[in-house]
Amino acid sequence: MSEVTESSCESSSGTSRVVEPGESNVMMQIIDYTEHFSSDLQGFMEGSGLAGAGFDYNVVAIIGPQSSGKSTLMNLLFQTSFRTMDEASGRYQVTEGVWLGRDPVRPIVVLDLEGTDSRERGEDAITFERKSALFALALAEVLVVNIWTQDVGRFNASNLSLLKTVLELDLQLFVKDQTEFRKTRLLFVLRDHVSTPMEKLKDILTADVEKIWDTITKPTQVELSSVTQFFDLDFVSLPHKVLRPEDFEREAMILRERFRDGRVFHEGYKRGILADGFATFASNIWEIIRTNQDLDLPSQRSIVAIVRCDAISRECTSDASSRIEEIRSRISNEITHVEDLSTLLSGILSEGTERFTERSSKYDQDVVQGKRQDLLEHLRSLCKEVYVQAEEKAEEVAFRTVQDWIRDRLSTPLTWVNFQNDVGIMISESLQKFDSICGPVHAVETFSSRGREKLMKRMSVEVENARIEIYRQSLDDRMETFSLRCRKELGPFFDVLAEDMWQMISSKIVELSKPLKNELDDVMKELGFGLDTEERKLKDVESRLFRVVQEVVKTLIGDASGFTYRLTKFFDQSFRFDDRGVPRSWGPSDDVDAIYLAALESSKKYLKQFAFIEIGEISKPNFTEEDQHRLQAALSTHASAACLDAKRTRDNLSIRAKIPIWLIGLLIVLGWNEIVAVLRNPYLLVALVLLLPVAYLTYSLDLLTPLRPFMASALERARTRGVDLLSQAFESTGSQESGGAATMSSAPSHSSSQDSHVSSNVNKKGE
Fold it and tell me: What is the rounded distance in angstroms from the CA atom of residue 421 to the CA atom of residue 436?
């Protein structure tokens, strides 16, 4: 962890230092480098305002490896100013002893402990680590365990070995004579968290803590207790501070709010010490811990073994890392792959552990075995990173081969022929290509990788998608052909009235669909579908066949408006044509009403025949009831007009048939002179030639019948107008004759006779 914040507070190697309460962030060193406890803690508590808090205060402490960012984290969480490391100066011990500060917002006492695994303390580090960690556990309500995410699963690197010793000593020193037990929250802060699921990390750490608890020596009264009776386990992850500073800052602020609003604290965590007695309590706890012989260093032989094994492990790790980096560089730069990668990595792994075992054989074997396991895990993680990098590259190369093959396959005709066999060959070749890059299958187990399995899953999905696409294309092509054949073969069935029409159509559909089903069955076998899949897809084919037939039928029949034409055409075919298909020539003897009723009834049956689509055992309505009513109304209207037209034609023929032949002969004899006169006059002859066709068409088509009302109306208006004109003329004549009164008087009888004669003429002309 790179620390970039620099505090104005300086460490003291031999004396305690107090920062005055007036400063923005008060803090002090309560235990110095020589394990001396400061006598100024009481003054600090009073000066910082904590002494008067009573029981309303909390204590938080943090432990973790040296230079792991403990001080930086505490500064972010509690706005303290603990001294942090300057990255430009390299890795070194920043916090010495134990420092104490307070949160300016909430009464929280903050303890920042010296990091574990300190190079500066050397062989004395283990003793002080145990003492300071036990001191923090005795005082803190919340003990923050700051560890790297990559160290989860390691016993020493994740401070589990220290935690084991501290838990055991805590039970022996502070629990063995008590009947009521306090609780502490262990808050594991996982630094530089990247991709491993947090739930997985929680499970690992929880299992490790429970395993530690089960293996430590416990007092009799708590021998059967569980770890949850004494500790609440909590876990938080933080992103990389340098690579993802914004995310780190955001997550740290979220954790700060948990402390500020008191969610991480619990009443059962309280130690029952008033704030003004905290300094005395802490001093006594430290004295008990410092003078207890159980906390002495382990044997000199173990110390030597630990120091030497660590040195040998670092040398082996350094040598292996350089070789691994060389391989990583080759993987990144080479176009193809590194030959025999798994053998190279396995060699690095075995050579590193063998070298360690050989050089550490003279030391304590208990220590050697633990350190060897740590080295093995570390080297395996380094090798796995490189292997996974090569594996991802190999996976992409092999998968692209599959994609290219499928793309080419889909572009060729008859893609389904021998598909399953060709796919098996292609997958085998792709896996061989993958293995040639990554090595044999046993290498996968060595480095706990699942790349080959992922590749096989991806290939299976890709092949299955291709199989489905090929089947879909084959199905679409055959359905299109089936639809065209249905249009051609089923059309004639809809032009006739037959009770078994739908049975005949169903038989024809079965006949047309049989070759399609056989072809699709061959396609599915070639594509490698299982029996269950084939049966399921055949059911889908049946359903789709019905939909295609339904669409074809609807197209051939048409909708309600389109079917009106077909229905009226059918009526006309039945009414206007006889059984031989010859147009009817209506005569006086034809029973138009009977033929009309028969054609109408036949047309209604024709409509009923198409009201439902009945194919096989499936029956679906084709027209709604409202559509059927509209069609019947349209049929009735058209049929009535056709019937009236037929009757009119029949009646006209009847009239022509009633004229006797002798009358025609008489008209010719009596009008012979007029006929000769017309023939001799060219003007009359031309007029006659022009008028005769018009008269014939008017008579044969019975055009006079619709014209009679108009002609009668016109004649009535002409008669009325003529009467008016004649009346006006005679009135004018009468006024002129009134001037000669003598004349009129002398001849009254003659005038009356003349008036009577004129009136009679007017009436005749009017008529």
Answer: 23
Q: Which residues pair with 494 in a beta bridge?
A: none
Q: Measured between alpha carbons, how far is 314 from 491 in angstroms, rounded to an integer? A: 89
- Say if CB 554 and CB 622 are below 8 A apart: yes
- Are the CB atoms for 141 and 147 separated by under 8 Å? no
Q: Cα separation of 481 and 463, whole Å? A: 27
Contact 251, 27 (CB under 8 A): no
* Structural contact between residues 460 and 399, judged by C-beta atoms closer than 8 angstroms: no
Tens of pLDDT, residue by residue over 369-427, are: 888 888 888 888 888 787 777 777 777 777 888 878 778 777 776 666 667 777 777 77
Q: What is the DSSP letter of 577?
A: B
Which contacts qualify for 578-581: CB closer than 8 Å, 24 or more apart?
Answer: none
Say how far apart CA 148 and CA 251 lie, in whole Å: 16
Q: What's the distance, CA 363 to chain centroid?
A: 61
Q: Which tokens go with 300?
A: 């000199």
Per-residue pLDDT at 38 exceeds 80: yes
Looking at the DSSP bridge assignments, the partners of residue 89 are none
Q: In this structure, are residues 155 and 202 in contact, taking their beta carbons and an 8 Å threshold? A: no
How far apart CA 273 and CA 182 sit, in angstroms, is 12
CA dist 316 and 348 (Å) reads: 10
User: What pLDDT does residue 59 have?
Assistant: 94
- Report pLDDT for 704: 64
- For residues 13 and 32, is the Cβ–Cβ distance under 8 A? yes
Distance CA 375, CA 349 (A): 10
3-state class (DSSP) for residue 159: coil
Which residues are CB-neighbours of 33 under 8 A, at least 6 positions away?
Answer: 12, 13, 14, 96, 97
> How far is 104 from 21, CA to CA, in rounded Å?
11
Q: Which residues contact 450 (CB under 8 A, 6 or more apart)?
A: 444
Structure tokens that stand for 172 in this block: 């022996």
* Residue found under tokens 């740290």: 252
Which residue, 218, 82, 224, is CA-closest to 146? 82
Of 135, 110, 143, 271, the residue nearest 209 (C-alpha): 143
DSSP-derived secondary structure letter, 222: G
Hey, what are 237's tokens? 């992850």
Among candidates 384, 399, 375, 356, which has minimal Cα distance to 157? 375
445-502: per-residue pLDDT in tens? 555 557 777 778 888 888 878 777 777 777 777 788 878 888 787 777 766 666 677 7
- In degrees rounded to 5, what are phi and psi of residue 512? -75, -35
How many CB atoms are closer than 10 A to CB 451? 21
User: What is the C-alpha to C-alpha distance for residues 226 and 206, in angstroms, rounded to an integer?
Assistant: 12
Q: How far apart are CA 489 and CA 100, in angstroms?
A: 96
